[in-house]
Amino acid sequence: MSTRRSLIALATVLAVSSTIAQAQTPAEKHLASDKFTLVVPFPAGGAMDALARLLADGLAKRYDQATVVDNAPGGAGTIGMGKVKRAKADGHTLLVIPAGNLTINPTLMPKFPFDIQKDFVAVAMLATTPNVLVTTPKTGFKNVNDVIRQAKAKPGSLFYASTGMGSGLHIAGELFKDQANVDIQHVAYRGSTPAINDLMAGTVPLMFSNLPTVLPHLESGRLVALGLTDRARSPSAPDIPTLAEQGVPGVIVPSWYGLLAPGGTPPDVVEQLYKDATEILAQPQVREALKAQGMTEWNMKPAAFDAYIREETARWAKVIQARNITME
């Protein structure tokens, strides 16, 4: 009897396993066949890195596969982008990347080495967050007007850091200079961590950053927020005014992060990855983790995301050309 029960139990398990296997789509079976590598074209420690690790953890659990986050900084993001472009177009090597690399660099960089629409496939919009101008208590700046007064009294004496040449944060700084009519020098860093380290050490007095990266330092008092580069205040930090509220309109540069695959990745695999990413980011615990860092998930299907990249590229091209913003 015991043997018969064991055989029945085994048959039941096999039947359930067979049903589960049959329920998987070909794209799901394919994605479960190998490990994932999520390339982040900036150093570890920033908001984008945190987002990539949340997504990597979700993919690892969903497909029971090892998942690696590969931080590949340098070349204003082009080194990491090149890794993904050259990767096999099978959905196992993906790019987690901010807006600026997709929509600003193609115009700003004289020899931009990619054709975004041909070399990559838009998979999903992942999240969005406001950007913020910050300083340290040592500077004595309490608001944006303090910065403007000093910049006008001593043109060229102030410096602002960003996460890299051609980043959205670089453009935010250039728009701020234009709208406030001040001369402030740009210092490009290879990622947020070294920029914040120099900011807190007093090497540079100002920095344009995305909110999640600096939020812990704002809460601890080590940094001071001067103004958001967005249309409205953030639910994660409602006490921080926008630049527009302080008399500097026209600096509307939020950050967003997207997921891309190598060009030629099969449409069914792209669609499955979109479903996976949006379901992972919609989980309550993931939403809370994003909110704690000042981010909000942003669901956009592959075709809509592709169109949005095109629209934003055209928008920023007009801004860059009209203001004669160049790679220094």
Automatic annotation (TrEMBL):
The keyword Signal applies. The keyword Translocase does not apply. It holds the Pfam family TctC. Keywords: Receptor, Signal. Belongs to the UPF0065 (bug) family. SUPFAM superfamilies: Periplasmic binding protein-like II. It comes from the Bacteria. Residues 1-23 form the signal peptide. This is Tripartite-type tricarboxylate transporter receptor subunit TctC. PANTHER family: BLR1237 PROTEIN, TRICARBOXYLATE-BINDING PROTEIN. InterPro entries: BUG, Bug_dom1.
